[in-house]
Design brief:
Number of domains: 2
Radius of gyration: 23 Å
Shape: globular
Family: Belongs to the peptidase A1 family.
CATH architecture of the largest domain: Beta Barrel
Mean pLDDT: 78
InterPro entries: Aspartic_peptidase_A1 (IPR001461), CND41-like (IPR033873), PEPTIDASE_A1 (IPR033121), Peptidase_aspartic_dom_sf (IPR021109), TAXi_C (IPR032799), TAXi_N (IPR032861)
CATH topology of the largest domain: Cathepsin D, subunit A, domain 1
Keywords: Aspartyl protease, DNA-binding, Hydrolase, Protease, Signal
CATH superfamily of the largest domain: Acid Proteases
GO molecular function: aspartic-type endopeptidase activity; DNA binding
Pfam families: TAXi_C, TAXi_N
């Protein structure tokens, strides 16, 4: 019995020592990690993230960020948890084609610029949060939130988009509406619904407006051919247990596109008409989200208010582009493979004085894009360090793929983002090598950009808590995982 206890104690001590050694390696420059092939599903999940999120070389925390006990937090869920939308799943190639169109649209928008944002501090709310789920099963790469619309509130699933500034839902009567999971919102059933007049300040803030019988009309088109048209209104939205009155929303009577399953869109961009912009000074542009890995039972949240800013996050500067105030730019200095920085000039990722190039974080884009020269250097460095893995033909937008059929796990080089402020973010393996079929084909989830613009997509953001402090101009990563 004594020897059995002694053996157990020694075994426990060995586990502790090995675990400590692993943690020490992750706190320094990590060169390799393992991708669990068998546990990684087509929906990009391997379930192994606990020790894969690593910051080094200049880790710093911004003082003054404290948790707020009044912050209301709800679970974040995947869209694939919703059985009633499973029938709308589209193929991988369709999603990648739509992603390419999304990128082309962002490039066009950012090359032409946008009007400056108008400050609006009329809305005063407490900290609050709502569920977020993946839209993959509905044929899109976006994520969804559950929000109550009207009085009494009718719960609706809405796409979240950090690159959009309009909040809208499909409304009765529908001239043309796509299929959604919940009943279409009927303004006649809401006591808080109020149409906006053509001459109002709210109507003047819209780019594409018109007038019909004295009511302000709006029209928004998206790069994939989706669009929404209708009237602008002030309505009450319920997020969690918090009611927010007089939010300007689009009441869409004519809608078409890739929003199947969702009732509309919740714009989280930096402009005055976005949900964040309308909340005004009370939240200070502060919100936090964690895009939970697809295909898992994990949970996360979308939170609003300064209480959502976590203690222990690594913060970098948020860069403002006056020509495109809706987008969240960050300072990326370089990229690394296997713990070695790829030879790419730092100016490749810098925002120019004309408002072009730069690096945008976008929840609506799935795959991260780099300018072609930077992508080629990055890809070549990755393939040079994975020459032992069997290659596979390219798939869709991906030109670097591997045949991992029959493998339990594979040793792969790390992929890191070097930020201008100093920190280095090393991604989990499942955030850059993703399955693209059921036959064991995995591809490097990056692609070249058709311009000088770089985009950090949602695949690379998955599982990492990301926070925006608009008032002080910071974006934070971690410390939580989901």
């Amino acid at each position: 019995m004594f020897f059995k206890q002694l053996f157990s104690s020694l075994l426990f001590l060995l586990v502790v020592i090995v675990g400590a050694a692993a943690a020490a390696r992750l706190s320094s420059s990590t060169k390799f990690q393992y991708l669990n092939v068998k546990a990684t599903k087509l929906d990009f999940n391997d379930g192994q993230i606990l020790h894969a999120l690593n910051f080094s070389d200049g880790h710093r925390q911004v003082s003054g960020y404290k948790s707020d006990n009044n912050t209301f937090k709800l679970n974040l869920l995947h869209r694939d948890k919703l059985s009633h939308v499973h029938g709308h799943r589209r193929g991988f190639n369709d999603r990648m084609k739509r992603d390419a169109i999304r990128v082309a649209t962002l490039v066009r928008r950012l090359s032409h610029g946008a009007p400056a944002a108008v400050k609006d501090s009329r809305y005063k709310v407490a900290n609050f949060a709502t569920d977020v789920i993946s839209g993959m099963e509905a044929g899109s790469g976006e994520y969804f939130v559950r929000i109550g619309v009207g009085s009494p509130p009718r719960n609706q699933y809405m796409v979240i988009d950090s690159g959009s500034d309009i909040v809208w839902v499909q409304c009765k009567p529908c001239s043309r509406c796509y299929q959604q999971s919940d009943p279409v919102f009927d303004p006649a059933d809401s006591s808080s619904f109020a149409g906006v007049s053509c001459g109002s300040d709210v109507c003047d803030r819209l780019e594409n407006t018109g007038c019909n019988a004295g009511r302000c009309r709006y029209e928004v088109s998206y790069g994939d051919g989706s669009y929404t048209k209708g009237t602008l209104a002030l309505e009450t939205l319920t997020v969690g247990q918090v009611m927010i009155r007089d939010v300007a929303i689009g009441c869409g009577h004519t809608n078409q596109g890739m929003f199947i399953g969702a009732a509309g869109l919740l714009g989280l961009g930096g402009g005055s008409m976005s949900f964040i912009g309308q909340l005004g000074g009370q939240t200070g542009g502060a919100f936090s989200y964690c895009l939970v890995s697809r295909g898992t039972g994990s949970t996360g949240a979308l939170e609003f208010g300064r209480g959502a800013l976590p203690v222990g996050a690594t913060w970098i500067s948020l860069i403002r582009n006056p020509r495109a105030p809706s987008f969240y730019y960050i300072g990326l200095a370089g990229i690394g493979v296997g713990g070695v920085r790829v030879s790419v000039p730092e100016e490749t990722f810098q925002l120019t004085e004309y408002g072009t190039n730069g690096v945008v974080m976008d929840t609506g884009t799935a795959v991260t894009r780099f300018p072609t020269a930077a992508y080629v250097a990055f890809r070549d460095s990755f393939t040079a360090q994975t020459s032992n893995l069997p290659r596979a033909p390219g798939v869709s937008i991906f030109d670097t793929c591997y045949d991992l059929n029959g493998f339990e796990s594979v040793r792969v080089p790390t992929v890191s983002f070097y930020f201008s402020d100093g920190p280095v973010l090393t991604l989990p393996a499942r955030n850059f090598l993703i399955p693209v079929d059921g036959g064991g084909t995995f591809c490097l989830a990056f692609a070249p950009s058709p311009s000088g613009l770089s985009i950090i997509g949602n695949i690379q953001q998955e599982g990492i808590q990301i926070s925006f402090d608009g008032a002080n101009g910071f974006v934070g990563f971690g410390p939580n995982i989901c």
